[in-house]
Amino acid sequence: MFSLSRKDLAALAVFAAVVLTMPIWLAPFGAAYPGLMQKFAIYAIFAIGFNILFGLTGYLSFGHAAFLGVGSYTTVWSFKLLSMDIGPAMLFAIIVSGVFALLIGYFSLRRTGIYFSILTLAFAQMSYSLAYSVLTPITNGETGLLLARDDPRHLDALFGAQATAAGLPQPTLFGMSVTGYTGFYLCAVILIIAFYLSQKIFASPFGMALRGIKSNQTRMNYTGFNTRPYMLAAFVISGMFAGLAGALLSITDPLAGAERMKWTESGNVVLMTILGGVGTLFGPVIGAWLIKYFENIFSAINTNMLNGLFSFLPDGVQTFVVTVLSKFVGEGWHLTLGLMFVLIVVFLPGGLVEGFHRLMVRLKRQKATPDGVTSVQPAE
Amino acid sequence: MNVFLAQLLNGLDKGGAYALIALGLTLVFGTLGVVNFAHGALFMLGCFCAVTFRYLITLETVTIDPEKLSPWGSPVEVRTPLVQNWFGDFGAVLVDYSVPISILLAIPAMLIIGIAMERGLIKHFYKRSHAEQILVTFGLAIVLQEIVRSFFGANPVPQPIPSDLRGAADIGVWFGMAAHTLTYPWWRLIYLLFSAVVIGGVFAFLQFTTFGMVVRAGMADRETVGLMGIDIDRRFTIVFGLAAVVAGVAGVMYTPLLAPNYHLGMDFLVLSFVVVVVGGMGSLPGAVAAGFLLGILQSFASMTEVKSLIPGIDQVIIYLVAVVILLVRPRGLMGRRGIMEN
Amino acid sequence: MIEATPNIILHAADVHKNFGGLRALSDIDLQIEEGKTHAIIGPNGAGKSTLLNVIIGRIPPSSGAVVFDGTVLTGKAPHEINQLGISRVFQTPEIFPDLPVLHNVMAPAFARRDGAFRVNLLRSIDSERQIRQEAEDILDDIGLHGRRGDHAGSLSRGDKRRLELAMCLIQRPRLLLLDEPTAGMSRHDTNTTIELLRKIKSSGMTKVIIEHDMHVVFSLADRISVLAQGRIIASGLPQEIKEDPRVQQAYLGGSVQ
């Protein structure tokens, strides 16, 4: 079925189960509300797409936020001009961001290494700056692109479906509203499809060619592969994933702002991917979830909550503990994030997935020597 | 012509800051082989050395003088800066000149920070991939900026120019033009000269000392220098410290031009990476040249005449130039083959 | 003149190469017969590697042209030259160190079957049974089947060289270029490699070998060309070359062993 290997099928099944049961297992972590779970799904799609480029080919793009932004803008324009249905919106977002990626990729891929990174960064920063200035008619500048009651929505008008009486129109899927849990399950299903696609790419000869480019481009050329179109295809696919993620951001919250194109957003997706594990299937997803979790949960904690939490301590100690901890939460959650990166890179190079693998290997080894004597093995 | 000169000058001081940051970034990359995303944070820390120094020097005693009453009847608070108590008028001068004087604090402080960073963290990453170096230094940069934010808050902290140095120099007169045709703020002129002196100093240090010779040799061919049995480790530490000091003093002197805030480092980091890459990874003259070039181009692009001709050009000029240069010259202006290309 | 006669598969006609003022190759006229193993020998710095690089299109000749089966190779990209049916073994092995040994051998087979660029997500690597079988057979031949799951980067230097050879062989090239295929190998490994090359000799593949080791050259070559100071000073059957006084002169007056 699906022509996946048995191992991949199992992984897909586990993944689908984990994603769909999020509302259950996230509840103890205080993260089981649709708004946050949507973000988990959306940024996981973004990271999965980024990983197809960075993980397989080793080309580090620092400008992927541009595609996220383009996807968002396209979606809102589709809502405004065509229809409140999310089908055409997503379709156009993927196409437009793909074309955009084709343009940027065509030029950026003429260079390798850090030169490629800086080219992608430069293109993305230009898009960001222009979205704020010259392109205001398209992007609505600093305010961001918003829906309005009197948008034309030609397709909707054609079919006679008009906005309901009060308030702004809401995005729909075949007339069904996509707010709350519906919105989450929509994103969840798309995430599972995205994961499946990335599995297909990883397992295909195309994916092998991309890995070959990462491993030894000279050999690829002398083996008869034309590496340029392979790279470009990977770049465009990964840009389309980003565009899709951008579309979902605007579907769940119908507005689009230029800040989505800023380099910090590009940096975020790099961090998510590296944190979870570059070039692995699950890594980017885990990285995206962790970062979004910390961003939302840690930034929401305030001093009062800490005081409540540590009220069992003696007064002086409590004040001290709360003062110290308050630096790491709320406004200061970035500090936690920064520390987390430093610690993970220092102690877990290769990201969480590789760390997990190493832990498993160690556990197996300990099982193999039941008397507790750890065998000394030379490092490879 | 005068407009042209004025814009050229305006671009030079910004270019000076870019060049100073890019210089340290290149030095660290060239010798240690580390892509340091925390370098912008070092510039920011330099800025806050000036802020700290001014804070310390303006600590004051507050006494209530019961004899005097303010117009609304409450006793007057008499605030006297401590330095004024101790040194009299000289203290007042100290307060006025806090920015340039804080260089004296910044040099040892940045040296210590730099050495601590290198010994504590960076040195474990010499053999790791560039991606990991980027991630760990990026994390470090976040940590540093958040620490600064928790001490100094999120708002910019403006620093005054010493009162004698306010106003503008009528430099047109120096070149035989009529008065007031070409003026340039004193402090910008000082920053330009200052950056020229620091850049000259670094180059002289690398050119004329044995230490500098080894560093340059290391930049050209790291492995060979390692094989020669030279104690690379200690030199790496010093180079990193030097780069930190250069970034730091560049920050100190820049504070009157741009009120520092905690995320200033990140803003400058992106730009200075573009500068370094445009100059060519690993090339010191390239970094300096690209710094000034981009500073000047940015200044020209923000002229109203240019903006009306090409709308939005001031926003994108640096990136546009970076794209064009990288597409025309694969390794930047003065880069060498094979560096950071895989 | 630049026209391939029926049984000449590769013809380097009147090739000159200058590096700045330095003449690396002059007046090269080299014809490789189809199905034969042609060795190019010569002292260090004679221009052997330059000649190979000119043939493969890595370095453009200053003048002259290289024609492969009626197609001018000059100015073609490496992948285009490979797609014409020319594979190359490098002096330092160029493999995919981060990929499993098996995939190292499978990738070139895909390039042979699917051409220079193809995106097909419907089939997975594992479902390509035929190519997989072919790769496993070749790995069996070179004795690396037991390590097919290991990363190629973990192989010994000798194994890497044999792996690279296998990567070229699976493409069933019409012309195989080997740049010192046994350099740095132990006597034992050298002999296994010679055996392997002998075995494929019967398959009718044309081979050009650059080699220092005279033992290898005389066990494999059908024809030998001797390069000295950028010129071909002798070309002929192994026996003729052995007895040629100019060749002995070129090797510093010593006799060819």
Question: Explain this structure to me?
Answer:
The complex is a heterotrimer of chains A (about 375), B (about 350) and C (about 260). Chain A contains 18 helices and four strands. Chain A has about 375 residues and is an all-alpha fold. Chain A has two domains: about 5-280, no CATH class; about 300-370, no CATH class. Chain A has a two-stranded antiparallel sheet. The two termini of chain A are about 40 Å apart. Mean pLDDT of chain A is about 85; it is low at about 370-380. Chain B has one domain (about 1-55, about 100-330). Chain B has a two-stranded antiparallel sheet. In chain B, strands 3-4 form a two-stranded antiparallel ribbon. The relative contact order of chain B is 0.20. Chain C is of the alpha/beta class and about 260 residues long. Chain C is built from nine helices and ten strands. Chain C has helices at about 50-55, 80-85, 100-115, 130-140, 155-170, 185-200, 215-220, 240-245, 245-250, and strands spanning about 10-20, 20-35, 35-40, 65-70, 70, 85-90, 175-180, 205-210, 225-230, 230-235. In chain C, helix 3 packs across helix 4 (about 130-140) and helix 3 packs parallel to helix 5. Chain C starts with 7 loop residues before the first strand and ends in a 7-residue tail after the last helix. Classes of the chains: A mainly alpha (about 375), B mainly alpha (about 350), C alpha/beta (about 260). The interface between A and C is large, with 32 and 40 residues.
